[in-house]
Design brief:
Layout: H1 4-23, H2 25-38, H3 56-69, H4 84-110, H5 116-124, E1 128-136, E2 144-150, E3 155-160, E4 163-174, H6 175-185, E5 197-206, E6 218-224, E7 227-234, E8 244-247, H7 289-308, E9 313-317, H8 327-331, E10 345-349, H9 360-365
Antiparallel strand pairs: 1-2, 1-8, 3-4, 4-5, 5-6, 6-7, 9-10
Helix pairs in contact: 3-5
Length: about 375
C-alpha cells in the first residue's frame, strides 16, 4: 500500500527529474534530429512528388562503428623491468581483464542485445555513451560481471567537482519488463498500474547535509508509473554514483544553461549562440548535417524534374481553341497518329536541363 510519505517522496523526485530533463531538452532535440538523419526519416514523402534521401549519414556511422568495434581490444598492463613473479602477476591481470569483458559481453547478449562493444561504439559515434557497471553475487555461485549500456537520450546528469552529483534515467518499458525488474531486485511493484507502457525513473543523487544524509554516499530512488517501488536508499558500498555518462565529441561541460559570452545581437542577420547543451556530444557526421539536407534537396529536385519530364509536353494549336487531345491520352500513350486540318498543329516542348558545368555526382561520390 502506498503511504503519504511515499507519495510526497515521489512528487519530490519527479520535480527534480523534471528540472534535469528541462535542462537537457535542447540536447535531446538535437540528438533526435541526428537520429532521424541517420535513419533517413527526417522528412516524409508527399505523393505524388518525389523524395530522395541519401544514406551517407548511415554509411559514415556504420563504417566508423565497424572499424572501432570490429576487433576485440588489446588490454596491456605496463611491463618493463619487473621481476619474473611480478610479470606473471601482470600477465594474469591482463587475462583477468579479458575474462571480465567477455563475461560482460555474454551477459549483455543474454538480454537480447548484440555484441557489447558494437553497441558501445554505436552510441559513441552518435555523441555519447552511458551505462552502469555492476557485480552480481549470489550464494554458492561465481560472481557475474555486468555493464549495462543506456541510451544517452534517457540519461540526464548533473556534474560537480567530484563527478556526478545527480543523475536521472527516464525511459518507458512494458509492464512485464517492469515487473521483472522488481522481482530481480526484490521490490514491491504491486502499486504499479497494469498498462501497456510504464515510465521508469531511476534517480541517483549524492547525500545532502541539510537532509541529515551522508554527502559521501549516493542515494537511489526508483519510480514506476510515478509510484515508489524503491524508496530513497543509501548505498554505502559506493563512494560515488555508479553510473557513467560521457560525451564523445562536442563542447565541454559548462555547468550553466547560457553561454559565458553571448554573441547574439538583436538585429537581422546577427550571430545567435544556441544553448550549449545541444552541442554536448555530437555524432561523427555533425559537420555535414546541413550539407546532407542540401544535397538531398538537389537530388529530390532532379528526381522530381525527371518525373515531370518523363512524358513529353506538347503545345496544341487549333482554329477554334478547343482541346483536341486530353492529358490522359498522352499518359496512356494511346496517341499514335494525329489527323490535323488546316490551322491545327502539335508542337513538342523542350524540357529544362541542368547547366553543363554542374557535376553533382562527382562531388557527392567524394563525400563532400
Amino acid at each position: 500500500m502506498t503511504t503519504i510519505s511515499q507519495i510526497d517522496q515521489a512528487d519530490k523526485v519527479s520535480s527534480r527529474v523534471t528540472g534535469r530533463t528541462t535542462f537537457w531538452a535542447n540536447r535531446n532535440i538535437q540528438w533526435a534530429l541526428d537520429r532521424a538523419l541517420l535513419q533517413m526519416q527526417y522528412k516524409n514523402r508527399v505523393y505524388p512528388f518525389e523524395l530522395l534521401i541519401s544514406n551517407k549519414p548511415a554509411v559514415h556511422h556504420s563504417g566508423a562503428v565497424s572499424i572501432l568495434a570490429g576487433k576485440e581490444p588489446i588490454y596491456r598492463l605496463p611491463i618493463s623491468i619487473q621481476e619474473l613473479g611480478e610479470r606473471n602477476k601482470m600477465n594474469k591481470g591482463e587475462r583477468f581483464i579479458y575474462g571480465i569483458m567477455r563475461e560482460v559481453d555474454k551477459r549483455w547478449r543474454l538480454k537480447g542485445h548484440g555484441p557489447w562493444l558494437n553497441e558501445f561504439m554505436h552510441y559513441a559515434c552518435l555523441g555519447a555513451v552511458a551505462g552502469q557497471p555492476r557485480i552480481v553475487k549470489r550464494s554458492r555461485q561465481a560472481p557475474e560481471f555486468h555493464c549495462d549500456l543506456f541510451d544517452p537520450m534517457t540519461v540526464f546528469p548533473s556534474f560537480g567537482e567530484d563527478g556526478l552529483v545527480e543523475v536521472a534515467r527516464v525511459y518507458e518499458t512494458t509492464y512485464d519488463h517492469a515487473m521483472s525488474i522488481c522481482r530481480a531486485n526484490g521490490w514491491d511493484g504491486s502499486a504499479v498500474g497494469k498498462e501497456e507502457s510504464v515510465e521508469v525513473t531511476n534517480h541517483w543523487r549524492m547525500g545532502k547535509d541539510e537532509d541529515d544524509e551522508d554527502p559521501s554516499i549516493p542515494y537511489n530512488t526508483v519510480l514506476m508509473g510515478k509510484r515508489i517501488v524503491k524508496p530513497a536508499t543509501a548505498h554505502d558500498e559506493f563512494g560515488r554514483i555508479p553510473i557513467f555518462i560521457m560525451p564523445m565529441n562536442g563542447v565541454p561541460w559548462r555547468g550553466l544553461v547560457n553561454p559565458s559570452i553571448n554573441l547574439a545581437v538583436e538585429q537581422e542577420g546577427a550571430l545567435s549562440v544556441v544553448d550549449w547543451t545541444a552541442s554536448w556530444g555530437r555524432p561523427i557526421f555533425w559537420m555535414n548535417r546541413t550539407l546532407y539536407r542540401s544535397l538531398d534537396r538537389v537530388l529530390t529536385y532532379e528526381a522530381e524534374r525527371s518525373r515531370r519530364s518523363a512524358y513529353g509536353k506538347y503545345l496544341a494549336l487549333t482554329e477554334d481553341g478547343q482541346q483536341a487531345f486530353s492529358e490522359e491520352d498522352f499518359a496512356k500513350a494511346e496517341i499514335v497518329t494525329m489527323n490535323a486540318t488546316v490551322g491545327e498543329s502539335l508542337t513538342p516542348l523542350q524540357p529544362p536541363w541542368l547547366p553543363r558545368r554542374v557535376c553533382l555526382r562527382g562531388s557527392w561520390s567524394r563525400g563532400c
